[in-house]
Design goal:
By secondary structure, the chain is α/β, with parallel strands linked by helices. It has a single domain, classed as TIM Barrel. 38% of the residues lie in helices and 19% in strands. The longest helix is centred in the C-terminal third of the chain and has 19 residues. The model has no long low-confidence stretch (mean pLDDT 94).
Length: 221
Amino acid sequence: MSIQENLIQIKSTLPKHVTLVAVSKTKTVDEILEAYNAGQRIFGENKIQEMVEKEAQMPKDIEWHMIGNVQRNKVKHMAEFVKLIHGVDSLRLLREIDKQAKRHDRTINCLLQIKIAEEDTKFGMTVEEAKEILQSPDISELNNVCIVGVMGMATFTGDQKQIEQEFKKLKTTFDELKTLNIGNCQLEIISMGMSGDYELAIECGSTMIRVGSHIFGERNY
């Protein structure tokens, strides 16, 4: 099936409240344009440099999401255009995003990355650390970031029960954090679920899925 056919097929199964992020990492500008021409406007990249290069060549109505691990010293390269940063895992990173957003006189939306997987290779903070950040007096001084939700990645396993538990843990975390009612936070998004498990993620409360291979085919390395 073509990229266009894949997109139509996926979108036809998604509930209205779920946003599709097309994961375009390692994909060419031509492949991304094919998805764009099929109506897709939200693309996710996991390397800032790659995203910056693609942004320069692509239509300007695209929403770029940074879905990978973010190094603080590279935030400045995407601060002018990035729409949503999924992988925020520390207050220091939030401060840097705020500083760079301010330089461009804009507000950057961020998701707190919560560690729900048992794998050590997965990044993210604990629920306690997330609460600590949201209740920190520093957060109210960050005028150029807005925390709009949470993101998590399940363990890479065939055990559906375990994946389901991890997804439910993220939904519970979201519900807990939402009760805190912090000034520059408008928690609305639960970003969880990828090509292999997004249907289960949606059942568990996901409002944003990150799908790559089901749209573009297997990755090119």
